[in-house]
Amino acid sequence: MPDNLFAQCRLSALGSVHSAALRSAVEFLLAETTPLGIIATGTVIRGNANPSSDIDLYVMRDSDHRRRVQRFFHRVPAEIFINPPHAGRAYVPSEQRSRRRIIAHMLATGFVALHRDPVVEELR
Fold it and tell me: Could you say which DSSP state residue 28 is in?
């Protein structure tokens, strides 16, 4: 993991277990890929976690492939959505038509943990 890339990350202040899980999830991502941006979202990030809550991360990377990862970090489940920017652009109108605005909600309400490209704000 490039240390300078991790140094660019801003992690939201959470309880100790969730903070450690978020940090480990971001470290995992940076070891796997070089993201254009990372948005942390969900009930854990918003501060209304319940026992079944997970950390949701929406990751933008410069690639044609999408990937979904489900892992535990410090016993906290995480769901990671890794997408090229064009996939994010396609989700919004598709979700609008189906009235299931899942990705749009994630992008709009999430916490920007890493911002390396204008596409992050474009999609938000």
Answer: H
- Pairwise CA distance, residues 12 & 111, whole Å: 7
Domains of the chain: 3-116 (3.30.460.10)
Residue the block writes with tokens 């189906």: 98
pTM: predicted TM-score of the whole model, two decimal places? 0.86
Question: Which tokens go with 57?
Answer: 């991360």
Q: Over its length of 124 residues, how does the chain's per-residue pLDDT go in tens digits? A: 456 888 888 887 787 788 999 999 999 999 989 999 999 988 888 888 888 889 999 999 998 888 999 999 999 999 999 999 877 777 677 767 777 767 777 888 888 999 999 988 888 8
Q: Which amino acid is at 30?
A: L
Instruction: Count Cβ atoms below 10 Å from residue 10 Cβ, excluding itself.
Output: 11
Q: Mind spelling out the 3-state secondary structure of 7-26?
A: HCCCCCCCCHHHHHHHHHHH
* DSSP string across 54-96: -EEEEEEESSS--EEEEEEETTEEEEEEEE-HHHHHHHHHHHH
